[in-house]
Every structure is written in C-alpha cells, then in structure tokens.
Write a structure and sequence with these properties.
The protein has about 325 residues and is an alpha/beta fold. The protein folds into two domains: about 160 residues, Rossmann fold (3-Layer(aba) Sandwich), CATH 3.40.50; about 130 residues, Beta Barrel (Lipocalin), CATH 2.40.128. Helix content is about 40%, strand content about 20%. It has nine helices and eleven strands. Strands 5-6-7-8-9-10-11 form a seven-stranded antiparallel beta sheet, covered by helices on one side. Helix 3 runs parallel beside helix 5, helix 6 crosses helix 7 and helix 8 packs parallel to helix 9. It is globular and about 65 Å long. It starts with a strand and ends with a helix. Keywords: Receptor. This is Toll/interleukin-1 receptor domain-containing protein. Pfam families: TIR_2.
C-alpha cells in the first residue's frame, strides 16, 4: 500500500484537513495510507520523523501557497528532496495549488499540478469539486502501485510508470471559456442552500455544546427555508431565517428574525458565473460587508453564519 506524505505550511492546515477528508475513501479501501507531521507523537523527534517519510513515502503532495514557498523547511528540507526522489523515479510528487501564488518558476513548476490548469483550490466556487480532483489524481497514481503483480517490479518501476502516465509533461495553459444555463444555476442554488442548511445545523449543535449558558435551535421548515435561534441564559439573543426565492426569485436570502414571509431580507446571495465557474455573490447590504466577492458554498455559509453569531459575540 503506497503512503501519501503531506508537505505543507501550518498556515494551510485547515485546507490540508479538508483534502485528507476527501482521501478518506481511499484509506478505507486500503488503497493508500496517509501521514503528516500532526501524526508525530509526544517525545518523538520532529525532524527525524519527517525526514523518514520524505525519504520513504511513495506519493508526496506539495500543498502550494505563498506560505509554503516562504517556509525554508518546506522548500529546502521537504520539497527539494521530494523532487530528487521524483526525478530518480523513487516517488511521485503531485503539486496541489491551494492559494494563488507565483509557483510556476519553482522547481516543481515543471510538473502537472492539480486542480486542473493549476487553478488554486480557494478560487473554486465549489471547493469540494476542486479537492475531488486531488483525490482522483492520488487514486490514479496509487492504483498504479497497487496494480503491480510481478515481484520483479519495484516502487521505482511504478513511479516511473506514473510519471509517464498521469504526470506526463504537458502545458498547463488549457483553459477554455465555459457557459452555464438556467438549469445549471438553479441546481447550484439548490445545492448551495442544502449546504447552508447542513452548515447551520452542525454549527448550531456545536455552538450549544461548547458554550455554557447558550442554547441554540435549528429548524428546517421545508425544502426552501430554515430557521436558527440562540438564547443566552434563556433570553433570546439572535435569530435568522434563510430561504430561497423571495422578491428576487433566484437567490438565497437572510433575514435577521424568525418569519414565514419572503418579501424582505437583510442580505441576499445571487448565483453568478464567470467563464469558468458558478459562484454566489452577496448584495453587500449588511453593514461593513460591501465587498461583493465570489463566494463558494463554504464562503456563503460563513457569511450568513457570521451575521447570525455576531450579536452573541458582541453580547447583544
């Protein structure tokens, strides 16, 4: 079973966790094993443990960001050694572009990166889709190791085969404009609403668990509406209704109270598209939130959750 090593900056730990979650099925199926420095036990020598995995693991993921490139340890101790093994056919290195940075001139710039065309994961409207590309790339390489039946073949043979296959040299300048129809936008909105609903339900449960004196509730009214409410020592502290439709028809609205009405909102997300992806964009109606940036499902959920929890955090 090939082992996957994460080379990353701790500034990107949250993104690393999300990628590891996408690899969970591969681990369950016994296709890969995964290791990173958070697995180092108490009393173990940090540098020695990392060096051991850089020198022995068959698949090495470089989680690329400006912080990764700025880290002397990531760059000199991990990345350069990993590329030496890659060039020798002893391992397969896969650059994973997390955040926008000037990575093409780096020593690994010659390799095909994921997601496709080296687009940073954080620029995808749907980050899960971007991380799924990473999982598929890992599966493709790992299955090449798993398919070796002859005892005469070594990890070097498989690594070289992988380099000639999934990671063969080619241009990364392959992006073409995409178009999205009304059905695509409706499905994006519906899936986004379902993500928001799950996000709020899970966050409400954790909010109550972590904070004594806070009781929070979540109610899914129907397929198009949910209500969240929080109490501090039994007194109402914050509430909201999130619903699809309303006055604009094609958005997801937030109203800072519990209601069955759909004719007003404090904030609204509309489905927009560029030449590559669908995304949410807020109206910027909430005070201090005038920046109409492109939002993924997660970004949209965090925006609405921040609006919900701020009264609690400010003690209102």
């Amino acid at each position: 079973m090939p082992k996957v090593f994460f080379s990353y900056s701790h500034a990107d730990e949250a993104l690393r966790d999300q990628i590891e979650t996408q690899l969970a099925l591969l681990k369950r199926q016994g296709i890969i094993d995964v290791w990173h420095d958070r697995r180092i036990g108490a009393g173990r020598e940090f540098a020695r443990e990392i060096d051991q995995h850089v020198e022995s693991d068959e698949i090495i993921l470089l989680l690329v960001s400006a912080d990764f490139l700025a880290s002397d340890y990531c760059y000199e101790k991990e990345m350069l050694r990993a590329l030496t093994r890659h060039d020798a056919g002893e391992a397969v290195v896969i650059p994973v572009i997390l955040r926008a940075c000037d990575w093409h001139g780096a020593p690994f710039g010659k390799l095909n990166a994921v997601p496709r065309d080296g687009k940073p994961i954080t620029q995808f409207a749907d980050r899960d889709a971007a991380m799924l590309e990473v999982a598929r790339a890992v599966r493709s390489v790992a299955e090449r190791f798993g398919s070796v039946a002859s005892p005469k073949k070594t990890a070097q043979d498989v690594a070289r085969s992988s380099l000639q296959g999934a990671l063969s040299p080619r241009s990364s300048n392959l992006r073409l404009a995409k178009t999205f129809n009304d059905k695509d936008k409706d499905e994006f909105r519906t899936e986004g609403f379902e993500y928001l609903s799950r996000f709020f339900e899970n966050s409400i449960a954790e909010l109550s668990k972590r904070n004594p004196g806070i009781e929070a509730t979540f109610r899914k009214i129907d397929a198009n509406r949910f209500v969240a409410k929080a109490y501090r020592n039994g007194r109402s502290a914050t509430s909201c209704t999130v619903f699809m439709g309303g006055m604009m028809g094609n958005g997801i609205s937030y109203l800072a109270r519990e209601t069955t009405e759909s004719n007003s909102h404090n904030e609204m997300l509309t489905v927009e598209a560029d030449d590559q992806a669908l995304y949410f964009q807020s109206f910027g109606m909430a005070v201090g939130r005038g920046n109409r940036q492109k939002l993924s499902y997660e970004g949209a959920a965090e925006l609405y959750w921040t609006m919900f929890i701020e009264p609690l955090q400010q003690g209102k």
